[in-house]
Q: What sequence folds into this?
């Protein structure tokens, strides 16, 4: 129970309910879950190139010959990589930083996978790096740091657009988003 | 009670509570409210130029000599105009369409203030029209219609940027927003 309660989104009460639920279904639920977690421990690997999690190293994305190897999309976490994959909007490669710079949490540049990004750019094959970091303070601080680091490589650096989300109504949006959407307005047609 | 329940955000139950609350405070609340509503009925005017609501016609914004008269920002409703004013991001003039095209609700182009927008552009003083319509299906349909109508005027037409809202995290955004943010990515620095 104490271990379950440490998982994100769970507290002591929900952990207790889960344990009771599992103990009632030992054969049907608990044993398969143990097997699946055991398999995950031994089989899920971190891709040495991009930092993605999967059954192979290098991962399926890095090995896919149909993907555009001249664009690398930099994300904070594997969850963000998966979110972009779900959208089917990107056909290049990824690079997972593994977090954001944070003085509060003691996360320094050396804790992020920035050096391995620079190594991947050394070959000259990559023409564009897209910084797909969250539009949070931490994400944007990290973006600034990465931009500085990449300045000398000569690779093109782009950022995700900021503006109205799909379905966004002006009256319900914060001032910062409205300001960003106005400043980044674009010609139609 | 029945009349109050027709207001947006209220139902029969909340209307009943409000009526009882007011009846208990006739002098302190109900009479001042009646006076304020009566004043609003007689004093709030619709600006003949932009469609804003206020104490004057033309409204304070249209009369303000410090505002940039070469840019008109087109919004759906007065609420959107006020949202943009709160953000302090825009110093030009506005034009309130008064809604969006909707086959379902029977709102046709003639029901929107499009002709009066064309009239305002006729003088040649306006150089840019910003379409600040909601990122909803109705808003974007209306934007397309207005773009077509303005094509022959020669005025520059821009749209609010679509992308990540401030504070937006990739993992929690919908696919459409992620796709828009990727497609509209911009050079840094």
A:
């Amino acid at each position: 129970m104490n271990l379950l309660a440490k998982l994100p989104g769970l507290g002591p009460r929900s952990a207790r309910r889960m344990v009771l639920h599992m103990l009632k279904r030992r054969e049907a639920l608990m044993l398969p879950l143990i097997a699946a977690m055991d398999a995950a421990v031994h089989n899920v690997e971190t891709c040495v190139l991009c930092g993605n999690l999967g059954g192979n190293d290098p991962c399926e994305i890095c090995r896919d010959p149909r993907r555009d190897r001249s664009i690398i999309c930099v994300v904070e976490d594997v969850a963000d990589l998966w979110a972009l994959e779900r959208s089917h909007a990107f056909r290049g490669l990824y690079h997972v930083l593994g977090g954001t710079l944070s003085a509060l949490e003691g996360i320094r540049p050396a804790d992020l996978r920035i050096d391995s990004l620079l190594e991947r750019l050394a070959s000259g094959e990559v023409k564009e790096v897209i910084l797909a970091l969250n539009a949070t303070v931490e994400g944007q601080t990290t973006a600034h740091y990465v931009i500085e680091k990449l300045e000398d490589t000569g690779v093109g650096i782009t950022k995700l657009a900021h503006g109205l989300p799909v379905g966004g109504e002006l009256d319900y949006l914060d001032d910062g988003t409205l300001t960003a959407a106005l400043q980044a307005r674009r010609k139609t047609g």
